[in-house]
Each structure stands twice: as structure tokens, then as C-alpha cells.
Write a structure and sequence with these properties.
Blueprint (H helix, E strand, L loop, with lengths): L5 E11 L4 E12 L4 E5 L6 H8 L7 E6 L2 E2 L7 H4 L2 E4 L11 H11 L5 H13 L15 H13 L5 E5 L7 H18 L2 E5 L3 H7 L2 E6 L4 E7 L14 H22 L1
Parallel strand pairs: 3-8, 3-9, 6-7, 7-8
Antiparallel strand pairs: 1-2, 1-4, 4-5, 9-10
Helix pairs in contact: 3-4, 3-5, 7-8
């Protein structure tokens, strides 16, 4: 039987404060195949971001097990080789203002001590792929928000990780720029076939990008539905106008609406 690229097995994360214990994620179990593009959606506070922070070792699980390629994380701090398998794209690009776009993108190569010429050639290849080559010597304050976000995406990819973790990367951008970057990330995925976990509040965005959508609920954060997206690739923005897309998006929206109503009741 084929081993999943990523597996969460009954993972629970409890945060303790002086006054109470908060269950951010409870009994979370999913399997993601190699090269799959999946999204996680759900109300605020359902533990979406916690799920990927557990995967990249920023926080440890309280119970349960997380595996990559069938190998458990273990209880120790993740090794550099294991961390190298992953790239993380934040909600904000967090570029260093005193470095150029190219220097910012190349930072992971220095962190992981990657000195091979093909590794450094990848910097220019990625800059060219997302239309940033002509502005590679500019500083973050000299380019648009969309450009800095593009730089943040390819910075996470420059060390050639197998897994890309994206935590609402385009949520702060206007709709037109968000649409453009959604299409960019689809092109990147179609070329590289990296395993991508994409977190978003935008249901249309999740449907447009993903092969599979995991729907989470709050109190406590938990998985309540897994939906396969049966829409053909390659996908284009015009697909949002089709009945199939609209019906599927409405189904996810209505499911989340029922969750919110259950909380109010």
C-alpha cells in the first residue's frame, strides 16, 4: 500500500494558560498524497494554522502522531534535514528591507548551507517564473505588495522543498491581485508537483486551487468534512462562472454556515 506523503493520526493540541486549557485541535486525522494540492477551510479559531505549525515543528502535538513519508516526527526538535523538506509561506511576506528581492529569495540557501551552483541558479529560475527577474535588484519598499508576496512564495521554494505550507498567503491583497497570484501558484504547482497545503478563508479560492478540501469546525478545532474537488485541470479564473464551480462553492459555504449557526444556538 502506498504511504501518504503527510499523515496526521489522531492529533490533538492543547494550549495551557494560567486559567484554562484550550483545545486548539482535537483528534485530527488526514492523509495527503505526494504531489497533492489540498486546502483547509473553516471558521476563525478552528485550528487551521495550528495544523500546519504542528507539521513544521513550530509547536509539538499534545497527543497523536504526525508522519512525513511514513516516518513519525518524534518528540525531539525536527532535524534540519526534515525541516528542509518543507517551505512555509506566511500571511505577510516578511521580507528583510535591507536586502534586495533576490537576496531575500536566496536566504534559505544560506540557512541550509546550500552551496551548489544549481541551487543558486534556481533563484533566477524562480524569479523569472513569477515575473520578478527584472526587479530582482530592487528593495522590498520599492515594489508592490503583490510583488513582495510573489517573492515570499518563491523564497519558500528556493531550497527545493517537497512540501509547501501556505497560511492565507494572499488574504491581505485586493481581489484582482489575489486572483493573479492564485493563477501563479497553480502554474508553479503544475510545473513542480510539490505537495501543497493551502489555508484560506476564501471558499472560491480553495475550490479553484485544490484537489481536495478539508473542512474544520470550532470548539474544539476538528475535522468535520473531506470534499474531493471534481473539476478538471488546468483551471482558469473563468471557471468560477460555471454552474459546477458555483454549486460546489455554495455547498462548502452552506456547510460552514451551518457550523456558525450551531455555535450561535
Amino acid at each position: 500500500m502506498k504511504v501518504p506523503k503527510i499523515e496526521y493520526d489522531n492529533v490533538t493540541k492543547i494550549f495551557s494558560t494560567r486559567r484554562q486549557k484550550i483545545t486548539a485541535v482535537q483528534d485530527f486525522s488526514i492523509a495527503i498524497e505526494d504531489g497533492q494540492f489540498v486546502s483547509i477551510v473553516g471558521p476563525s479559531g478552528c485550528g487551521k494554522s495550528t495544523v500546519i505549525r504542528l507539521l513544521n515543528g513550530i509547536i509539538p502535538p499534545t497527543s497523536g502522531e504526525i508522519k512525513i513519508d511514513g516516518v513519525p516526527h518524534g518528540k525531539k526538535k525536527l532535524s534540519k534535514e526534515r525541516l528542509k523538506k518543507m517551505g512555509f509561506v506566511f500571511q505577510e511576506p516578511n521580507l528583510l528591507p535591507w536586502l534586495t528581492i533576490k537576496e531575500n529569495v536566496a536566504l534559505p540557501l544560506k540557512v541550509f548551507h546550500m552551496k551548489e551552483s544549481e541551487d543558486w541558479e534556481r533563484v533566477d529560475e524562480l524569479l523569472n517564473m513569477v515575473g520578478l527577474y527584472e526587479t530582482k535588484d530592487a528593495y522590498p519598499t520599492e515594489v508592490s505588495g503583490g510583488m513582495t508576496q510573489r517573492a515570499g512564495v518563491i523564497r519558500a521554494m528556493v531550497h527545493n522543498p517537497e512540501i509547501l505550507l501556505m497560511d492565507e498567503p494572499f488574504g491581505s491583497l485586493d481581489g484582482i491581485t489575489q486572483d493573479a497570484l492564485d493563477m501563479e501558484i497553480l502554474k508553479v504547482w503544475e510545473k513542480t508537483k510539490k505537495t501543497i497545503i493551502f489555508i484560506t478563508h476564501n471558499i472560491d479560492e480553495a475550490v479553484l486551487l485544490s484537489e481536495k478540501i478539508f473542512v474544520m469546525a470550532t470548539q474544539p478545532g476538528r475535522l468535520i468534512s473531506i470534499q474531493d474537488v471534481h473539476l478538471p485541470y488546468p483551471r482558469e479564473l473563468e471557471m468560477k462562472e460555471t454552474h459546477e464551480f458555483i454549486d460546489f462553492s455554495n455547498m462548502i459555504t452552506n456547510l460552514l454556515g451551518e457550523l456558525e449557526l450551531s455555535i450561535i444556538k
